[in-house]
Hints:
The structure holds 2 protein chains of 2 kinds.
Chain A: H1 8-11, H2 17-28, H3 45-61, H4 74-84, H5 86-89, H6 106-111, E1 127-130, E2 140-143, H7 145-160, E3 173-179, E4 187-191, E5 197-203, H8 214-222, E6 226-229, H9 231-238, E7 248-251, H10 258-268, E8 272-278, E9 282-288, E10 293-296, E11 301-306, E12 318-325, E13 333-347, E14 350-357, E15 363-365, E16 371-373, H11 374-381, E17 388-393, E18 399-404, H12 410-421, E19 427-431, E20 442-444
Helix pairs in contact in A: 3-7, 9-10, 11-12
Chain B: E1 3-4, H1 8-16, H2 36-47, H3 53-56, H4 67-80, H5 83-86, H6 92-107, H7 114-117, H8 119-132, E2 135-136, H9 142-154, H10 157-179, H11 181-185
Helix pairs in contact in B: 1-4, 1-8, 2-4, 4-6, 6-8, 8-9
Amino acid sequence: MTDPDPTDADRHPTLSEAGQRMLDYLAQHRHAPVFRNKSGSRLTAHDLARLRVFEAGVAEAGCVGQRGGEPPWLADFVARCYADVPHYRARGVAPSGFEAIPTTRRADLAHDITAFVPDSVALDRLINFRTSGVTGHPLLIPSHPLVAASYLAFHRLALRRYGIELTAGRNDVGVVLLGYQRQCFTYVSVIPAMDEAGYVKLNLHPDDWRSPEDRAQYLDALRPEILSGDPISFSALLALSMTWKPRALVSTSMTLLPALRNELETRFSCPVLDVYSMTEAGPIGVYDACAGGHVLLQQQLLVEILDPAGKRVRLGERGEITLTGGFNFCLPLLRYRTGDYASLQTRSNETVLCGLSGRAPVRFRTTDGAWINNNDVTHALRALPLWQYRLHQHADGQLQFEYAVDRNMDIEVTRILHGIFGADRMLDVRQTNFGNIKVVPYTSDAVSNNGI
Amino acid sequence: MQHAGPPLESLTRRLLDTPPEFLAEPKIGSRGVVHVDALLGDVTTMLGERAPAGELRRFADPDGGARNRLALAQLAAWVCADAWFRGAGIAPVRLIRAIDAAATALSSHAPAASFLADGDRREELVRTLLAALDHRPADESIEQAQDRLANVSSSQRQIAVSAARGMAERARKIREALARKAAEESADKMWRE
Lengths: 452, 193
């Protein structure tokens, strides 16, 4: 099969001269980092028209109140899943009651993701996103440029809750997405739905920059309206001398602890949004202290809270967050158990996830005393077909790694972990069967020096 | 299949006797004559309570690709008009969803007419419909009903083999599409997850 390299025309089908100038400015700035990759919106003019309709619908619907009972779109969605999606169709006839439908799990997606792509989805524009692996081995999630671009609608909705309307447009930089990893997918792009405002995905790790001081100077020069990232990259941002004040910080991917949020808000004098989001479903809720939790963002995403037996708990009781619906038409979710836990409350006609717990950033100490984060471990292990794994570092630095897969991979795992932690690090690797339990993949008793 | 239903033979016999008005072409655009949403509404009314309009919407103004599903829904509606269902206490919403689920599941297997002409397929339609209603034929245990539904479905082995081949080919194409350089480059999302 021939697999040609994508061209800039593939990445930016509607790019104007102004958009090209923005790309050049972002990539060729004298303080710019090394950009290791290329990407783009891939949106056609037809996509943009559809996107405008979608965004208007999301804005009109506002944040979501699940009013009990089944939403009007649900029956049709279930019927389509059972008719059009091989995994669900293989179950036979859909039960007549929604709560009798079996749940699905991450392990189901890991086993064969192709069975979750509807037959009706054309494959010529399929793209993939890899999950971070914070809650297990990375998954390859099928998606589409239109789905990726649809995130912006929920981005706007979440910001509007904090009184912020995005105003960046032509010749501005709209969003800079910050990472802090040894290896990171980085590139420059423009946002067609914001009149080709600039967008940069960069890595704050010093290895990606000619000089560590360039990081603050580049961000100050770009003056991005929004900075997005995760608690690890925002911690790294705090250590920089950046003087620019963005209008908001958007934190996703991991638990944002209150102390870090306060520090960020004080330092940058802007709201810090904590968005509960996952690659499988996109943005699910935005934290609002007044509402007491994460307010749901997607109108066509049913959120249930289930007990370990798969039964719905009563309103206000804690259980596993379970999702049905969503806007990724390449991966319709039907009672998908996320592995995250919360209770569901109704506050002022909105539905709120309270006490959300799932993912917390974890750092590990290498033999030379450096600290790396769980994303670096995930990245290093991505080539191995592990179903689930668990890495624990003891207080004395020793590592214990357990993994589940259908063959022994002790040698490969040991080689990779020694590569990132150092060859003389004590390491206990064993193959195991986790059964049907939720695995917390990264834990550590080592005390972090927060040295980023 | 938690609940005991009517005898299997009474429903397969009834299916064989489907009257012409339930066999006429479903109305799609300017073609066909049977308004399937109205037909299903009438059946639920006859059983005691009309199904809400919202539940019937999936059978109104469909696109051309829905023809086989609608034709199967007509057959299932005739089965459900049996006297046994009048006293069964099945809510109209549940009945409509079961008809929809059965018709949708079977529509990708074979033309609706074959579920009338072929004895195995008549049984398959009736068993599938009862299963969607969480019922089983009278005088059968849950295990027997599950086994027999599986068996009658496996009588379509050739279809299944063919479908499996198609699914394997589709899965291969999806894996290839996801592995393309363009797919790996992905597209702007602006949030980490």
